[in-house]
Amino acid sequence: MLRGSKVGLRARHEDDIPVLQADLYDDPVTHSRAQGSPWRPTMPGSKYSAVTVDDGAVSTAAFSVVDLGTEALVGTASLWGIDTHSRSAHLGVGILSSARGKGYGTDTVAVLCHYGFVVRGLHRLQIETLADNTAVLAMAENNGFVREGVMRSSAWVLGEFLDEALYGLLAEEWKPALPRS
Ligand SMILES: CC(C)(COP(=O)(O)OP(=O)(O)OC[C@H]1O[C@@H](n2cnc3c(N)ncnc32)[C@H](O)[C@@H]1OP(=O)(O)O)[C@@H](O)C(=O)NCCC(=O)NCCS
User: What distance in angstroms lies between residue 100's CA and the mean position of ligand 1's atoms?
Assistant: First the structure.
């Protein structure tokens, strides 16, 4: 397990899947605003669920996020689009609705940075989010990500095109908060 100050990032367990699916993916609005893909219903236990991990997919590293003290599941996190030529990747984070606003998201991004820069030797990490997703904007800025621009009308979300904000962090800019295991 990778440890931050509040969260641990570990492999997905079978019993995490229905909890993450129900809270983060089953609702069309929550899904559509966070995923950048069209919502569609998924059967319980489907291997096509967005929270089912394919260990053979080398361009993604997927984690479940747990509270460091209690080990209770609090969310999901990933590095995706890992590009080993240009040494870059994208970050994805989803915190269960009952666990939001307690700093778990910010600490999860910090641990993903450690994983990306130290464990994987990447040079650049980036976060794209809807420009009005203020929690993600704060989570990125809390971790030193630089706002690099706005991608105008880049996301089709429930009947309209919305802007996305692009944030990037380079290895040499990264200031790790804590030594991490
Ligand atoms: C975005 C998300 C991961 C943040 O997780 P979290 O654990 O609540 O984040 P934190 O507690 O670390 O808070 C991060 C910042 O967002 C702010 N914040 C949290 N919830 C907020 C809300 N509903 N509205 C506005 N700001 C909010 C916090 O105040 C904090 O800012 P601060 O440090 O300046 O005070 C969580 O809201 C989530 O999973 N949302 C749905 C999925 C999603 O949008 N994923 C991102 C796709 S790119």
Answer: 6
